[in-house]
Amino acid sequence: AQSVSQHNHHVILSEAASLELGCNYSYGGTVNLFWYVQYPGQHLQLLLKYFSGDPLVKGIKGFEAEFIKSKFSFNLRKPSVQWSDTAEYFCAASGTYKYIFGTGTRLKVLA
Amino acid sequence: GAVVSQHPSRVICKSGTSVKIECRSLDFQATTMFWYRQFPKQSLMLMATSNEGSKATYEQGVEKDKFLINHASLTLSTLTVTSAHPEDSSFYICSSRGAGDTQYFGPGTRLTVL
Predict the structure, then answer these.
(1) Closest Cα to residue A33, out of A48, A54, A53, A45?
(2) What number of other Cβ atoms are within 10 A of residue A110's Cβ?
(3) Is the Cβ of A25 closer than 8 Å to some Cβ of chain B?
(4) Could you read off the pLDDT of A56-94 as tens digits, one per residue?
(5) A contact test, residue of B44, B58, B96 with most A CBs within 10 A
(6) Which of B55, B63, B46, B91 is nearest to A98 (CA)?
(7) CA distance B98 to B31
(8) Is B11 near chain A, with CB under 8 Å?
(9) Which residue in B9, B11, B38, B109 has its CB near the most CB atoms, within 10 A?
(10) A25 chain-B contacts, CB cut-off 8 A
(11) Considering only CA atoms, which of A74, A75, A43, A76 is closest in space to residue A62?
């Protein structure tokens, strides 16, 4: 069955710390991978996506994610977080089957 | 990115009444729109896929007679919660499927059923 797993449900970091949020997927056939972000009081928006090509994808606001096919992973990273990165982050997969979202990771960045 | 609007943003209704939520794709034509439900501190739960000009496809466990979806045009999909009950209180989010399989989300509608 298709699934997306996010291992970290809550993450608290200090400003300038490095961030890595885990995402693993189980999805048959061709898969497209996404990270969406939901800032407090705002709607979900696309952070970055991977379809094919370079497995290291760069998104907005300094975020990047690496697709590792052998590990079925698509982890999100940022070298130095800011207070404004406080939000909920969702990993998602799509392709042959329907869109599937992970359960989300709440990131809180302390100023 | 594409803009998707939802109306209303908040609605409070009495138990037993019906509530209609509109989802509009403002700057592109969306043949496919999605309706999600989000519980507090949980992920998005896909309720149904709305296809313009045809019947919606509902996910397992979602009552199609209770959650009526109409996608009459390429820019508008509506979700009607019929005979609402307190357990239907939730945050409902729609999205449009755009180019590159990206979803563009609306701001959501907070439904409270008294």
Answers:
(1) A48
(2) 11
(3) no
(4) 999 999 999 999 999 999 999 999 999 999 999 999 998
(5) B44
(6) B46
(7) 9
(8) no
(9) B109
(10) none
(11) A76
